[in-house]
Automatic annotation (TrEMBL), chain B:
Keyword rRNA processing: no
Keywords assigned: ATP-binding, Nucleotide-binding, Repeat, Transport
Pfam families the UniProt entry points to: ABC_tran
Lineage start: Bacteria, Bacillati, Actinomycetota, Actinomycetes, Propionibacteriales
Keyword Ion transport: no
All residue ranges annotated as the ABC transporter domain in the record: 20-261, 273-520
Annotated Gene3D superfamilies: P-loop containing nucleotide triphosphate hydrolases (3.40.50.300)
A GO molecular-function annotation: ATP binding
Protein name, as recorded: Ribose transport system ATP-binding protein
SMART domains: AAA (SM00382)
C-alpha cells in the first residue's frame, strides 16, 4: 500500500532509478505493506506467529497465486479477464474425468493434467481470438468464454460428481516437502516461470509494452494481434492448472471450482501494484498481492474479527490500497470510469 | 562526396539524384484540402527546414512521407525511384524515418528495447530475449550520435532531451534496412526542450548531416534559420517558396508563411460597435501565476475582444484554461465585474458567468453521440428543467430558438451533434453558453480550428454579435490574421509572460510582422 508520501519522495530523490534490476519506491510499496501487516498481526496474535500458521497461509495462497499469475499478463496489457471461473471449472471437471475416478475407466495420470491444461489454453485462445478478430472488448469476450467454460464443465459433470482416486493428484494436496504442500511448490514454480516469461521472452515484454503504448508498437511495425492471443492463451493455461489444483484439494471435480477466483485474482494483482490500465506491475507484484490478501484473511481470523465483519473490512482495505496507488497520477478534471 | 547522376525519369535530363522528392502531392479531408499540390526536394546531406503556419499542411505532408497518410494524388520519389509508402515499416525500408512530435516511445520499456523495437534481429532468439545482445545493438545506435544514455535505463526515467536522443537512435536503425543514406524527419523536436538541450540537439542534427539528410520542422523561425541549410515554406497546402538560410532573416520567412491577407471584411469589422474604450474593465487579472505562466496581467472590458498571441509553448492556452478554473494557479488576483473570481474549479467559473470553448472540440467541446439539444443544454441544466426534472417542451422551445437565432443547420434538434459539420457543431458549443443568458466572459480557445472559410466567417459574425451585446471575450486565435482581424487589443505572450500589448482598433490594425517581432 503505497502512501502518497512515498510516491512524492520517489520523484524527488530518485530522478534516475536503475530500472531493470533495481526496485523503485513505488514498486516497494506493496512488499512494505506486506511486512507491516505481518508485523501487526504477529504482535496482536500469538496464534498468527506460529510456523503452522505460516504453512497454512502459504498453502491457502497456492491456487490464487497460480490464477493471479495468469491474469497478471492480461492486466499488464491493459485488458481484463473474467474467464477465470469458467476455465477453472472446465479444467477441474476435465482432469477429474481423465485421471483414475469413479465415473469412467480413465487413468491417464500426468497426461490427464496436461490435457486439462490444454483445454484451458484453448479457452484462453478463444478469448484472444474474439478480442482481436471480432474487436469485442476483453471484458465481454472473457465473460462469454467464462460462460462457455462453465457450460463445457456442466456437460461433462452430467449430474454425477466425479471423485478421483488417482494417488498422484490427491497426493499433491496432502504430501509435504519442507513443510509445504506440493501444490504450494507448484504455485511457486508457476510464479518463477511467469517471472521468466515476463522478463526474458518477447511475449512477456510485448505484453508489457502493449499496456504502455500500444500505438507505438504499431508505429514500429509490430503486429500486436498475435501477441494478444498468445497472452490470453498463456493465461488460460494458468487458470486451468489452478482448476486442476482445486480438484486435487477436493479429491473431486466441481463445476464451481473457480467460483469467485476472477475478482479475487484481479484484486490480488491490483493490490500488488499492477495497474488495470496496463503497463505496470507484473508477476512478482501479483505474488506479493496474493500474499497480502491471504495474510489479511488469515490474520483477521486469528485476531478474532467477527466473520460478519471480515468481508467488509477486506473490501475497505483493498479500496484504500488502490487509491493510495493512484494518488501520484491524480490531476484536475481527471476522467475516471 | 560524389553525387550519382541519373536520367531524370520524366524530362530525360541528367541531374543530381535527390534523397527525397515530392511532386504535386494532394490530400483532401472532408471539408479541408490539407495538401493541394505540394512540391518538395530534399538533397543529399542537407538539413532542410520546413516552415508554415498551423494548418499549412506540414503535418499531413510529413505523415505522407512516412506512410501514415495515403495521398490522393501526386508522387514521392526516393533517390530517383518512385515509391508508394503504405506504412511506417515501408518508409523505413526506403530509408525514411521520423521522430514524432508527440514522442513515440514505450515509456515502460528500456531505452534499448525502444531502439530495437520491431526489428530486434539477433536481440531475440526463438522468442527469448538476449539482454546482452540487445544492449550492444542499442549501444551501437547510441554511439552513432555520441550519446551516453544507459541502454538499460527505463525510458520514463529519462529526461525529455534524453528521450529524444533515444528516438533519434531508434530512427537511425533504419540504416540496417537499407544501404542508402537515410532521410530523418524531425517534427517539432525543440518544443519540449530547454535551451541548453536544444543546443545539444542542434549538434546532433549537424552530425546527422554527415551521413544523412534531415528534414527539420519547427515553429521557431530563428531555430530553423540557425540549423538548416535551406528552408521550404508551405501555406494553405501549397509550397510557396524556398530559400537558402545563409542570407535570410526571420521576417523574410514570415512574409512567405503569412502571404497576403484575406478578403475584405472577412472578420466583419463593420459589425463592431465600438464603445469598449469607456467603462470599467469587466475582467481584471493581476499577477496570475501557474505552472507554465508567470505574472500575467490582463484587462478585458465588456464588449471587448482581446486576443492573446504567442508561439507554441508561450503558455497562453494555460492562462485561458486557468481563467476557467481548469488549470491550477499558484498566485494572482482575478476579478469579474469587481467581484473576486473563484478559480478553484470549472463549476465556480460557470456559476459566475464564464464560458469556455475548448480547442479540442471533438474531445472536450461536445458529447458526440448526444443530440444537438442535449449538448446545448448540457452546462446550464436549469434552462431546461423544472426542479430536478427535465421538461422536454421547455428544452425544445429553447433549443429551437437558438438553432434559429444562430442559423444552425441541423435536420432536427434531436440529431446527433457528431453528424453536423464542424461549423455547426461549434455554433452549438457556443450556444451552450448563451442559453441561460447570464454569460459575461467568454474564453475562446481556437474557436475556428478545423473550420472552412465559410464556417469561420459565421463564427466571426457570432463573436461580433456577442461582443455587441456586452460579452467580454478572450480569443486565442488560430492564426495571426485572425487575431488581428477580430481583436480590439492584442496581448503578446512569450515564455509564460505577457510581454507586450498592441492596440488593434478598426482602421489602425498592426500587420502580422509587427506582432512577430514581439513574439520571437
Amino acid at each position: 500500500m503505497t502512501s502518497p508520501a512515498q510516491a512524492d519522495t520517489e520523484d524527488v530523490i530518485a530522478p534516475r532509478p536503475q530500472p531493470r534490476r533495481g526496485v523503485s519506491l513505488r514498486d516497494a510499496g506493496p512488499p512494505i505493506a506486506l511486512v507491516v501487516i505481518i508485523g501487526i498481526f504477529a504482535v496482536l496474535s500469538s496464534d498468527f506467529r506460529t510456523v503452522g500458521n505460516v504453512q497454512n497461509i502459504m498453502d491457502a495462497a497456492a491456487v490464487l497465486a497460480v490464477a493471479t499469475c495468469g491474469i497478471s499478463f492480461v492486466l499488464m496489457m491493459g485488458s481484463i479477464d473474467l474467464s477465470v471461473p469458467g476455465v477453472m471449472g472446465a479444467s477441474a471437471i476435465a482432469v477429474a474425468l481423465l485421471v483414475a475416478n469413479n465415473r469412467n475407466g480413465n487413468d491417464l495420470g500426468l497426461l490427464g493434467v496436461l490435457v486439462a491444461i490444454l483445454l484451458g489454453a484453448a479457452l484462453g485462445c478463444l478469448s484472444g481470438v474474439a478480442l482481436v478478430g471480432l474487436k469485442v472488448p476483453s471484458f465481454m469476450t472473457t465473460l462469454g468464454v467464462s460462460a462457455v467454460g462453465l457450460g463445457v464443465a456442466t456437460l461433462m459433470f452430467a449430474g454425477v460428481q466425479p471423485n478421483i482416486s488417482d494417488e498422484m493428484l490427491r497426493g499433491w494436496a496432502v504430501n509435504r516437502f519442507l513443510g509445504l504442500a506440493y501444490l504450494t511448490w507448484i504455485a511457486m514454480a508457476c510464479v518463477l516461470v511467469g517471472w521468466l516469461v515476463q522478463r526474458y521472452s518477447r511475449l512477456g515484454r510485448y505484453a508489457y509494452a502493449i499496456g504502455g503504448a500500444e500505438e507505438v508498437l504499431a508505429l514500429s511495425g509490430v503486429k500486436v494481434a498475435p501477441y494478444k492471443v498468445a497472452v490470453f492463451t498463456l493465461a488460460g493455461s494458468f487458470y486451468a492448472l489452478a482448476g486442476v489444483m482445486v480438484t486435487s484439494q477436493l479429491s473431486a471435480g466441481l463445476v464451481q471450482a473457480g467460483a469467485g477466483y476472477d475478482f479475487r485474482a484481479i484484486t490480488a494483482a491490483v493490490v500488488g501494484g499492477t495497474l488495470l490500465t496496463g503497463g505496470r506491475g507484473g508477476v512478482l507484484h501479483s505474488a506479493v498481492g496474493v500474499l497480502l490478501v491471504t495474510v489479511l484473511i488469515n490474520g483477521l481470523v486469528q485476531v478474532g474479527v467477527s466473520p460478519y465483519w471480515q468481508g467488509g473490512v477486506q473490501g475497505l482495505i483493498v479500496v484504500a490500497a488502490v487509491s493510495a496507488a493512484v494518488i501520484p497520477q491524480r490531476r484536475r478534471n481527471q476522467v475516471t470510469k | 562526396m560524389t553525387i550519382p547522376l541519373t536520367e531524370h525519369p520524366e524530362t530525360g535530363a541528367t541531374g543530381p539524384v535527390h534523397a527525397l522528392e515530392v511532386r504535386g502531392l494532394v490530400k483532401h479531408y472532408p471539408g479541408v484540402k490539407a495538401l493541394d499540390g505540394v512540391d518538395l526536394v530534399v538533397r543529399q546531406n542537407e538539413v532542410l527546414g520546413l516552415a508554415g503556419e498551423n494548418g499549412a499542411g506540414k503535418s499531413t505532408l510529413l505523415k505522407a512521407l512516412v506512410g501514415l497518410v495515403r495521398p490522393d494524388a501526386g508522387e514521392i520519389w526516393v533517390r530517383g525511384e518512385k515509391v508508394r509508402l503504405k506504412s511506417v515499416v515501408d518508409a523505413a525500408d526506403h530509408g525514411i524515418g521520423m521522430v514524432f512530435q508527440e514522442q513515440s516511445l514505450v515509456p515502460n520499456l528500456t531505452a534499448a528495447e525502444n531502439i530495437v523495437l520491431g526489428s530486434e534481429g539477433p536481440g531475440v532468439r526463438r522468442g527469448i530475449y538476449r539482454w546482452d545482445t540487445m544492449r550492444r545493438l542499442a549501444q551501437e545506435q547510441l554511439d552513432k550520435i555520441g550519446s551516453h544514455i544507459d541502454p538499460l535505463a527505463r525510458t520514463d526515467s529519462l529526461s525529455f532531451a534524453e528521450r529524444q536522443m533515444v528516438e533519434i537512435a531508434k530512427v537511425l536503425r533504419i540504416e540496417e534496412r537499407t544501404s542508402n543514406p537515410p532521410v530523418i524527419i524531425l517534427d517539432e523536436p525543440t518544443s519540449v526542450l530547454e535551451s541548453k538541450e536544444i543546443e545539444t540537439l542542434f549538434t546532433q542534427v549537424r552530425r546527422l548531416r554527415e551521413f544523412a539528410s534531415v528534414v527539420f520542422v519547427s515553429h521557431r523561425l530563428d531555430e530553423v534559420l540557425d540549423v538548416c541549410d535551406r528552408v521550404a515554406v508551405l501555406r494553405g497546402g501549397v509550397s510557396v517558396g524556398e530559400m537558402p538560410t545563409a542570407d535570410a532573416v526571420p521576417t523574410d520567412l514570415h512574409r512567405l508563411m503569412i502571404g497576403s491577407t484575406g478578403s475584405d471584411d472577412h472578420y466583419h469589422e463593420g459589425l463592431a460597435e465600438r464603445s469598449a474604450d469607456e467603462g470599467e474593465p469587466r475582467l481584471v487579472v493581476k499577477g496570475l501565476c501557474g505552472k507554465t505562466f508567470r505574472d500575467v496581467d490582463l484587462e478585458v472590458r465588456a464588449g471587448e475582444i482581446v486576443g492573446i498571441v504567442g508561439v507554441h509553448g508561450s503558455g497562453r492556452e494555460d492562462v485561458c484554461r486557468a481563467l476557467f478554473g481548469a488549470e491550477p494557479t499558484l498566485a494572482g488576483e482575478v476579478t469579474l465585474d469587481g467581484q473576486p473570481l473563484d478559480l478553484s474549479g470549472t463549476r465556480a467559473a460557470v456559476a459566475s458567468g464564464v464560458g469556455y470553448v475548448p480547442a479540442e472540440r471533438k474531445i472536450e467541446g461536445m458529447v458526440g453521440p448526444m443530440s444537438v439539444a442535449d449538448n446545448m443544454t448540457l452546462t446550464k441544466q436549469k434552462s431546461r428543467c423544472a426542479g430536478p426534472m427535465v421538461v422536454p417542451q421547455k428544452q425544445a422551445s429553447l433549443v429551437d430558438k437558438w438553432i434559429e437565432r444562430l442559423s444552425i443547420r441541423t435536420p432536427h434538434r434531436g440529431t446527433q451533434i457528431g453528424r453536423l459539420s464542424g461549423g455547426n457543431q461549434q455554433k452549438v458549443v457556443l450556444a451552450r453558453w448563451l442559453v441561460a443568458g447570464d454569460i459575461r466572459l467568454l474564453l475562446l480557445d481556437h474557436p475556428t480550428r478545423g473550420l472552412d472559410i465559410g464556417a469561420r466567417s459565421e463564427v466571426y459574425r457570432l463573436m461580433r454579435e456577442l461582443a455587441n451585446s456586452g460579452v467580454a471575450t478572450v480569443l486565442l486565435a488560430d492564426s495571426l490574421e485572425e487575431a488581428i482581424g477580430m481583436s480590439d487589443r492584442i496581448i503578446v505572450m512569450s515564455d509564460g509572460r505577457a510581454t507586450t500589448e498592441v492596440g488593434c482598433p478598426s482602421g489602425g490594425k498592426p500587420t502580422p510582422l509587427d506582432l512577430v517581432k514581439e513574439m520571437v
